[in-house]
Design a protein that fits this description.
about 150 residues, alpha+beta, Aminopeptidase, two-stranded antiparallel ribbon, 3 helices, about 20% helix, about 30% strand
């Protein structure tokens, strides 16, 4: 399905099938110490149980995506929600979330881990604040760029 977002037509797909690494430009993973290569990015899209991508209809580039991993029975975890900075503020992230919520509506729980300043964003979709734990192994990212 395609939606108009400012001057671009944004197409939303509920699959990573048919995408290739050339459609995954740099610019995602803002503020990461190391960013995945386009090839690793494509692999993570294909490896996710749930994925929605937003594609600019003019450039055919992926401009946003959301992924979730799941046991397929009770739970899913939103691992990544990214929209290129120049496309933010156009409702793309919200549409990605709405579509992911629709994909996972039959599951008991949907969790994510985010920075405190992003919690109000996720609350808009009915998510509740909670606590969490994490490990980050930056040396395990197939590096494309080094962030700052």
């Amino acid at each position: 399905m395609a939606c108009r977002s400012d001057s671009s037509v944004i197409e939303y797909r509920d699959t990573a099938e048919g995408l290739d690494a050339s459609q995954l430009t740099t610019g995602f993973f803002v503020d990461w110490l190391r960013t995945p290569t386009p090839e690793a990015h494509l692999e993570l899209l294909h490896g996710s149980a749930h994925v929605v991508v937003a594609i600019d209809g003019e450039s055919d580039q992926v401009v946003g995506f959301v992924t979730a991993i799941s046991d397929g029975v009770l739970s899913a975890y939103i691992s990544l929600l990214e929209v290129l900075p120049e496309y933010q503020g156009r409702g793309i992230g919200s549409e990605l979330m709405r579509r992911l919520l629709d994909q996972t509506k039959g599951l008991y729980m949907l969790d994510t881990l985010c920075d405190v300043d992003l919690q109000p964003y996720y609350e808009r979709f009915g998510m509740k604040r909670s606590t969490g734990m994490h490990i980050r192994r930056y040396d395990r990212i197939p590096a494309g760029e080094t962030g700052g």
